[in-house]
Amino acid sequence: MSDPKPKTKPKLKRPAAIDLGDLHVSIVRGPNAEGRWYWRARDADRVTVWTGWATRDEAAREGAAVLAKPKPNPVQRGVKTVGALLAAWLAVQDARLDVKPATRACAHQRAARLGRHLNETPIAAIRRDTLEAFVSARLAEGAAIRTVRGDLVSLRHAWRVGMERGLIPVGALPNLPLRINEKAYVYNHRTPTPKEVARVVAKLPPESALMVQFLAATGARVGELISLRRDQIDVKKGVIRLDGKTGPRDFPLTDGLIELLGDRVDQSDKPLVHLGVADAKRCLREHIVIACRQADVAPFSPHGLRRMAVDRMARAGVEPRCRGEHHRPRPGGDAQALPRGHDRSAQRREERGPRPHPPAAQSLIHSPRSQPPGRRAPTTGPAPPNSTHAPSPSTPRASPTALCEAQTTRVRGTGAPEAPMAPSPGRAGPRETSCCAPTAS
Known about the structure:
Layout: E1 18-20, E2 23-29, E3 37-42, E4 48-54, H1 56-68, H2 82-95, H3 101-118, H4 128-140, H5 145-164, H6 194-201, H7 206-218, H8 222-226, E5 233-234, E6 239-244, E7 247-252, H9 255-261, H10 280-294, H11 302-316, H12 344-352, H13 400-412, H14 430-434
Antiparallel strand pairs: 1-2, 2-3, 3-4, 5-6, 6-7
Helix pairs in contact: 2-3, 2-5, 3-5, 6-7, 6-13, 7-11, 7-13, 9-13, 11-13
């Protein structure tokens, strides 16, 4: 009797591959002892996204789970032109959570200006002469040299981002330093005098004139004033709560400010000032520039009024750490000690020592001045008008409240502000009127 033949393992039919859209799931080997096959899932770029032992139904479920997962941003394999590089850079800037909307808007504006001239330029063709041609074209359009330099700064940032993400070959962007005549381009760094501010206020529309007087008296940032509501003015406590970029702070509410604001101090939630335009900051800047031209004053920015206020405190002997942040003074008269502000020019002027005050600023200085060593102090009468000496340690320092009161009176001027402000014949154009068109209420 012959032995029976040994039983052989039954052969399993090889399952068919699975197609789920752009995902292809196929068998690599198998089956194992449990009857499962080793599957591999690849996407449209033939990149493996999943592998494992499974039955056909289990592999289908795994493939569906892969498709359901949120997909990361598509990785660009490389860009060929400056326009594509700028588009990739803008996508990175828009995805950042550590920048403000204004910063993103500035990036888009710079990319648009770069794209008008370099959009189709190949990355490999970017040389020094290419950038020089861009600068020449922008200057021929009437752009300021600082604006052109800012565009090149953004191009350099986009270049670095492209190299970090493998979008362009690693290589340095040609360096093109631009020299700026600091004597000709002083708008953003000029600090006006109180006498000049008073002349400009007389040429401003009523709402802009009030804003300029408020900024000159308090040293607030223009954004803090635009966002200030009327209920942030506490008459009982005598303070104005300003929402600064580093946190809220209080400024003393003086009689001069109460008189300046008038019936606006009504504890409502309405904005304190309203220019009736979408971009109030830009509109105020343009109003000041036009008024400066009409008053024959060198133009200055709203932030120059803040520097003027800090300058005034430094010359009057206010403690340096009290200049950047304003608080209600203590009953003794001294301002509370607070962190130092950002105005470094006032610090440098203080380190160099005091200097003579212009005649227009004499009414702002109320703190007594000591005499220099070796000279006898007068027994009666105020200090000489052109005294340049620092305050004595025993002399009480002027408080921000007194300085604010004096400055509010000083910049108010004698004449009433002119209501309508027309551009001067020498410089008329859309920029002076475009941002100041009233918005629909």
